User: Fold this.
Amino acid sequence: MANGSLAHEVSYLKYEGKHKGIAGWLLTLDHKRIGLMYLMAILLFFFVAMTLGILMRLEMLTPGETIMRPSTYNSVFTLHGVIMVFLFIIPAIPAVFGNFMLPIQIGAKDVAFPRLNLFSWYLYIAGAILAIVSLFTGGGAADTGWTFYVPYSIRSAQNVTMTTLAAFVLGFSSIVTGLNFVVTIHRLRAPGMTWFRMPLFPWALYATSWIQVLATPIIGITLALIILERLFGIGVFDASLGGDPILYQHLFWIYSHPAVYIMIIPAMGVVSEILPTFSRKDIFGYKQIAISSLGIALIGYLVWGHHMFVSGMSDASRVVFSLLTFLVAIPTGVKIFNWVATLYKASIKFSAPLYYVLAFIFIFSIGGLTGLVLGALSTDIHVTDTYFVVGHFHYVMFGGMGIMFFATMHYWFPKVFGKMYSEKIAIIACTVIIIGFNMLYFPFFILGYMGMPRRYYDYLPQFQGWHVLSTVGSWVLVSGIVFMFGNLLYALLKGPKAPMNPWGGTTLEWKVPSPPPLENFEEIPVVTGGPYVHDKPTYIMHPGKEGLNGNGVVKTANQENAI
Amino acid sequence: MTEHSEVMQEETQIHSGAHVHRDDEGSKMAMWLFLFTELLLFGGLFLLYGSYRFEYADGFKAAAADMNSVIGAVNTLILLTSSLSVALSIAALQRKQKALALGMLWFTIICGLVFLVNKYFEWSHEIGMGIYPGGPALENMSNGEIIYFGLYYVMTGLHGLHVIVGMIFIGFVMFFISRDKITATNYQKLENAGLYWHLVDIIWIFLFPLFYLLH
Assistant:
């Protein structure tokens, strides 16, 4: 084990095994390198989809044709949606930071199935390539919207088949990652790390992974049926052959509503990491936050019908779906109140990640409250398929998951790259983002309420004022985002070296060097207490050296042989 | 290390620069999770079947009456037998009877092949009669029958695909057994292949009555 001793000393960024250079990355089984490869790919697609979004806003600057034809606009909003949802929002936090931090936070050397982990990355890339190829082949990019609603998706002459195939492959990648995480959390927690000593980010990933495993197959078969319908005309969704297009919507949302929680629960998990670190105190209501993640995941399965209030459903079903939708507010409220209570009477250290989290709580609350308008039957009918809906889901998706992705990058940047960035610039960039974000998306609520329908490249002249404000907001937002990434990029190249624990965090990733060594830990640590205890150590990092191994230290049965 | 399921071996794989360990219990758990996803994949189709059977009860009855339930029953028998043989192969390997285990797996694969051959004849018979999506005979049938056959081809087709994947899976396992990579003390991969094969079996146990018997 001459090299083995090296593997827990040399940083994962520098370690060279059998494969060197680029192959050392493309063939790596290390969860941290795979996480970084996800980060590169995901950021690339984020910028692509963001550019598409900018172009859409530019088109909406004036009524009528501004820069693109209606059919182009249809393809652009479809791709903006497909890329953002399937290539950025769903995988971003779990695949990048879940991969990177989950094993470290639970005291493991890697995920349960490293090869499967790499396979999942290649599936992601394969799906992404299919999505890109679909742009340039077979009659042009898909123009159905990211929901691929029938009957249009089976009639459209554009390349819907390949785009749905791409989403299918990406779904498979998501399942594999989820499965890997569930087994990792069950099997690889360090000795003494009971379920309720696990940090809240792994808890959130656990809930998310179950949704990924149990919901994604439904979208798999639904998209497969769209492809079969297009190729062979099997009739199950085709009304002219007796099929029922509404059933497509049911199947689509049986996955896609739980998927909304795949997007947001990991983000909420990171909030629960950042708040206790910068509050210098234990999180308020640890168990409630942990269980509420599972609660959201569970209720999230039962509310898909609220996407279809005007599609044609019995009144009884609509009332039930509406009621269940309101129930989601309970576990969500549990989280928000516990977060705020954590800040109460805390010794708050004001820093960039915390600032992003506060931005998240503010913006996400607006998104959540406008969700109530959509969850209530009567008001929903007024604003269905208008900009109000678009505004709502950008507030919860971008304002929730997107802003938290930025927060996550700032929180773990020193750990991942071993460099520090300028917090001052990060805070300025965040302020620009908050201003731009609200300028861009708040007018959507007003436009929607006034009756501006979504997915139109044209509009009535009286809407122009709000559209102009919104388009200007998109420029502000993008400059904030570019500013923020510029700051991080500069830090990556020229930033000062980060210490092991720059924020004073209490979880295990802050007990290993920045960046972490290949094997994460010299010895598997032993856990003696909760994750957010600030006044006394709750981890024994070298149990063997301190002679504690097996001496009255609590161990889980499945780890006994591993030590 | 008395109990097999608690075996958890650690080794550091220096060449790939990563940490690889053996955890049979974890591997089995992952397989079960994967089987859940497979059940849900078919679950979407069963949901459609249920809705359309409710909507087109008469059309479904008429269409199912034309199915050859003898071939269906024979295929059910074949798959059930193959599930027995794959289970026996695990028992044989645990008793260190490598040749018997391989024999049982060969038998399982042959059962899978016979199943597919029957299916091939069944499908070509129906396609020959013009009963396929867009086919001349199906076009003149009622909506219920069109949907029935649409679902029939999708569900048995997807099931057939799983039979093929299961056979490939078992083929790999046989290769590993012959190379002594899967042994009496390290047989989790074989058990996983067996679990997968049982899934293929259990899906068919539901498909058979839904498409052949309910009329």
